[in-house]
Amino acid sequence: MSDIRQLLGAATARLGGGEEARGEAEILLAHALGRSRTWLFAWPEFEPDGAAEATFWRLVGARQGGKPVAYLTGRRGFWSLELEVTPAVLIPRAETERLVELALERIPQARHAAVADLGTGSGAIALALASERPMAKVLATDASLDALAVAASNARRLGLRNIQFAEGDWCAALGDRRFDAIVSNPPYIEAGDPHLAQGDLPHEPPAALESGADGLDAIRAIIRATPAHLQAGGWLLLEHGWNQGAAVRALLGAAGFAAVATAQDLGGRDRVSSGRWPG
Q1: With a cut of 50, which residues of the chain have pLDDT below it?
Q2: What is the signed CA dihedral for 122, 126, 128, 130, rounded to 10 degrees?
Q3: 237-258: per-residue pLDDT in tens?
């Protein structure tokens, strides 16, 4: 029998060593034991039973084979929320929290604002906005029914009632409604980009990642359609790749948006471009 300390040391080595491997080993062991990572630190000499240890090594083996940790545990933290994730949805990433921050700056707390999240996936963005702006009415859309099922399950588990879901590709799900803010983290990787074969990306839904020869097909479609769904003075905010800021700003300007700007993420890279619809 091995204790917590020994299991984590061996698993970290199998996963390549280093801080990232150690963190992944801790997440997987905590999941196998049904405990928190904090509990692991408090009980380093605990010896899991044979079944729990076998589950842990199965998870470590799957991670060695490339399967994302979030899909192995079925969970990923985003903003202040713990979200269910499945292979039907993109894994929420920390850089997308920048989109949430910028959207919150444009959604007043004391107003019944209407907000739409296009291509919601796990619901990460929509649920974060709904949790921070309880007076807002949030509509989360996706072309995938499987993704919408995950997002709706997250909303129920989190007890968020100011959010609805609709099936449809980008603005097609919005009907004739108009919104004070429309946000989206659409696919923006160029087709054939070598990064699609690296890291977790080969295991994630391709439709949530790549978007045409220059990665901008979805962004073009959204910018073209959103003016019919924004209130006068309403905002469109789009996450995009680090090298796409200038192109997205040009698309927004050509479509008639005002106050067009690009914000950077914590790494100083272009991450979110926005524009206000003059109406």
Answers
A1: none
A2: -130
A3: 999 999 999 999 999 999 999 9
* CATH architecture for residues 89-276: 3-Layer(aba) Sandwich (3.40)
Residue 198: how many CB atoms within 10 A of its CB?
A: 10
* pLDDT tens string 130-186: 999 999 999 999 999 999 999 999 999 999 999 999 999 999 999 999 999 999 999
Output the pTM of the full model. 0.92
Report the C-alpha gap between 92 and 47 in whole angstroms: 33
The Cα 182–Cα 161 span in angstroms is: 19
